[in-house]
Amino acid sequence: MPPHPHARPARHRAWRVATPVVVLLLSGALFAVSARQSDGLDLRGGRLTDLASVVRAERDEAGDLTAQASELNAEVEALSARLGDRSVARVQDEVATLVDPAGLTEKTGPAVQVTLDDASPEARLAYEGDPNDLVVHQQDIQAVANAMWNAGAVAVTIQGQRLISTTGIKCEGNQVTLHGIPYSPPYVIVGIGDTARLFSELTTDPILATYRDYTLIPGGGVAWDMTELDAATAPAYTGLLDLTYATPMADG
User: Which pLDDT does position 24 carry in this prediction?
Assistant: First the structure.
């Protein structure tokens, strides 16, 4: 059958159908691109006014949080200060309990006094043995002090100087140096405490027993005298408390 003179070609009918479809697809693509660029936000101008309101609200909230943080910091500082005060007080209490046994406070009480002395010059001239047998040595003084500590003495003095845990007794020639000060004999050692215990320890100590043997040297040996005192006073130690010690040299 011949075609109608006014009939449209088939391709024209195809475009009638395809054109709306293409338009719809392009519109969908534009919507998709717009959504992706906006990241889910409304890109219309009216949204800008809402965003400014959000910024103001967030700023106000940030100010409130900053003020709250400042208050909390102040509270922490106050608590830390109070804790620090308690720590200082605790340290001070501990120091107060240690100054007495450390020898930093004066002590008074019944005591035993021991006096050591070299042999007389005449006895030393006449002695034919070792001259060191007739003089008081560092270890003799130290032995008396140790015996007193062993007997529970609460304080010990030598030549009136208070002994502490770092006291060193050094023999230099015919003198003994104590806390940097040289002393000559006779050496007077006083121990404050239970006098019965002090007498017992000083009498039975083997080192002091040997010393007393040298008091019996014919012609006159070293001197030993032990006396009980109703009361004696040991002054507080007032010297330096710093410790000095050697350190190895760096390899050069």
Answer: 46
Half-sphere exposure of 179 (CA within 13 A, CB side): 16
| Rounded-to-5 percentages of helix, strand, coil across the chain | 50, 20, 30
pLDDT of residue 72: 81
**Contact by Cβ (8 Å): 181, 161:** yes
Phi–psi pair at 25, nearest 5 degrees: -65, -40
Task: Report the top-level CATH class of 107-234.
Answer: alpha beta
Question: Can you give the three-state secondary structure of 184-200, one letter per residue?
Answer: CCCEEEEEECCHHHHHH
Structure tokens at 129: 């043995």
Q: What is the pLDDT of residue 87?
A: 58
Phi, psi of 110 (to 5 degrees): -60, 150
- Domains of the chain, by residue range, sit at 107-234
CB atoms within 10 A of CB 219: 14
Q: Is 114:198 a contact under the CB 8 Å cutoff? A: no
List pLDDT tens digits, range 59-97. Answer: 677 677 777 877 887 787 777 676 665 555 565 555 555
- How far CA 161 is from CA of 157, 176, 180, in Å, comes to 5, 13, 11
| CA-based max dimension of the chain | 172
Beta carbons of 192 and 109 less than 8 angstroms apart:
yes
